[in-house]
Write a structure and sequence with these properties.
Blueprint (H helix, E strand, L loop, with lengths): L25 H11 L7 E5 L5 H8 L4 E5 L3 H13 L6 E4 L3 H8 L5 E6 L7 H9 L5 E12 L12 E8 L3 E8 L7
Length: about 190
C-alpha cells in the first residue's frame, strides 16, 4: 500500500498483518481520489474505521487541511501514527483510538467535516448506525460528502428516510463506494 499522489507520493505505508483490516487497494483508492480530488484542498477529512490510515493520509497528501483518524484497534492505530510520521503529515492528523460512535459523539460541536469516509467491517450494519447518527449531527453540513465503502450487496435503501441522497455509486468487483450528501441541497447553476 502506498500514497498515490501529493506531498507523500510513492511512499509505502505500513499495514497491519493478518485479517483485522482490509486496506483499500491502490487501484480503488486512485479511482476514489480522482473523483473527489477537486474539493480536497484545505478540506476537513474524517476517516472512520481507519485501519492503517491509508485513505486519510492520501487526503492529507493531496492537500486536506486536517484529517481525523478513528480506529478502535490499538495496533492499527499505532500503524496510523507510524504512517503519519513517515509521511511527515503527523501535524495535520488527529488520532482517536476508540469506538467510532464514541468518537463521533466526542467530536460533536468541535469539528465540521467536508468529507467523511468510512470503511467498516462488512455485513455488520455499522454503516447504518453511523448514518443514523450523522443524520442529526453537527459534524455534517449541506456540502459534506460522505463516502461509504461497503460490500457490493449492502442495501442502502434507508438513506432517503434519514435525509440523505446518493449522488454517485461506484461498483467494483467485490465492493462499492457510495457518495452521499444531505438531501434537499440547492444546486447552483
Amino acid at each position: 500500500m502506498r500514497v498515490i499522489a501529493g506531498s507523500a507520493k510513492r511512499l509505502q505505508l505500513k499495514t497491519l498483518e493478518g485479517m483485522d483490516t482490509r486496506p483499500t487497494t491502490d487501484r480503488i483508492k486512485e479511482t476514489l481520489f480522482n473523483m473527489i480530488s477537486p474539493g480536497l484542498f484545505d478540506s476537513m477529512f474524517l476517516d472512520l474505521f481507519a485501519g492503517s490510515g491509508g485513505i486519510g493520509i492520501e487526503a492529507l497528501s493531496r492537500g486536506a487541511k486536517e484529517a481525523v483518524f478513528v480506529e478502535q484497534n490499538p495496533k492499527a492505530m499505532a500503524c496510523v501514527r507510524d504512517n503519519l510520521k513517515y509521511t511527515k503529515l503527523d501535524r495535520k492528523g488527529i488520532t482517536l483510538t476508540k469506538d467510532v460512535m464514541t468518537a463521533l459523539y466526542q467530536l460533536e460541536g468541535e469539528k465540521v467535516f467536508d468529507y467523511i469516509f468510512m470503511d467498516p467491517p462488512y455485513h455488520m450494519g455499522l454503516e447504518r448506525r453511523v448514518m443514523e447518527y450523522l443524520s442529526e449531527s453537527s459534524l455534517v453540513y449541506e456540502d459534506t460528502v460522505i463516502i461509504i465503502e461497503a460490500a457490493k450487496e449492502t442495501d442502502f435503501s434507508y438513506l432517503e428516510d434519514l435525509g440523505f441522497s446518493v449522488i454517485k455509486e461506484k461498483v467494483y468487483k467485490t465492493n462499492k463506494h457510495l457518495f452521499v450528501e444531505k438531501a434537499g441541497k440547492e444546486e447552483i447553476c
